[in-house]
Amino acid sequence: MSDITKQSLTELVENIKNKKLSSTEVTKAFIDRSEKSEKLNAYITNDFTSALDKAKKI
Q1: b or e along 8-37 (b: 16 or more beta carbons within 10 Å of the residue's beta carbon)?
Q2: Is 1's pLDDT higher than 70?
Q3: Which of 10, 16, 44, 58 has the fewest CB atoms within 10 Å, measured from its CB?
Q4: CA-CA-CA-CA dihedral for 49, 36, 38, 55, to nearest 10
Q5: What is the pLDDT of residues 4-22, one digit of tens each?
Q6: Dist. CA 7–CA 13, nearest whole Å
Q7: E strand or H helix at 14, and its extent?
């Protein structure tokens, strides 16, 4: 599958519904992207653990 972070929200929802992706996979992809962008100083805080916990519940 192509870069998950490049998909539209509609595509992500459809892929999760069709079980082509899990919510955890999507969350991890965006966490990885966020960590690679740390130098931008765009975030005040991050709560990746909470995000992954919530993704697992979905």
Answers
A1: eeeebeebbeeeebebbebbbbebeebeee
A2: no
A3: 44
A4: -20
A5: 999 999 999 999 999 999 9
A6: 10
A7: helix 9-17
4 versus 39: the higher-pLDDT residue is 4
DSSP 8-state assignment for residue 20: S
Query: What amino acid is encoded at 22 in this protein?
Result: S
Q: Is 53 helix (H, G, I), strand (E, B) or coil?
A: helix
Contact 21, 4 (CB under 8 A): yes
Query: Counting every residue, how long is the chain?
Result: 58
24: containing domain: 4-57
Count the domains in the chain. 1
